[in-house]
Design goal:
The protein is α+β, with helices and mostly antiparallel strands. The protein has one domain (2-184): M1 Pyruvate Kinase, Domain 3 (Beta Barrel), CATH 2.40.33.20. Helix content is 16%, strand content 30%. An eight-stranded mixed sheet has the order 4-1-8-7-11-10-9-13. Strand 9 and strand 10 form a beta hairpin. It starts with a strand and ends in an 8-residue tail after the last helix. 38% of the residues are buried.
Length: 191
Amino acid sequence: MHTSHVNVGTAQPLSIDGRRILSAIGKHPVTGPVAVGRMGLAGDEQADPSVHGGLSKAVYAYPQEHLPFWRAQRQHHGASLFDEPLPPGFMGENLSLHGLLETEVWVGDTLHFPHCVLRVTEPRQPCHKFNAVMSFHLAGKAMAQSGFCGFYLAVAEPGTLSAGDTFELQPGPRALGIAQAFAGKRYKHLR
């Protein structure tokens, strides 16, 4: 299992239904080691800390295995004319992961990187900003139905992260899986 990209972003205006909303969902890859503190990655911002960021949502990880699904969804819904690749950070993730899916992760598990340790806290919830970035209004519903949500991480041991870092998953108490926690949420507003 490894990190293919480490991504950060700053808060920028995002146009949603004619309104301008501040969002830091737009992430871009960085090279070299990135400092990881208790509140997240150096150079990364969260525009609305009530729903993103903070100690329990300091870092957002997303499995890159789901990108073909999202490319197909965007093409099907007319958000893209071609099956074009999605750039690193497109899902709003700080860590683009390979080899670890939501069905294999539990709240309390830890990811041990060479220079830091991150603890799994909860699944990402779809929101209207996600719909805007994906460029189709049913994107949140597609996330809710597929379960391809990614997961948030708290920083258990600060340090650094770099693209290409390998990591080891250490099981926690295994009481609540990410897929189970995500499926237990109600997304009536997305129907």
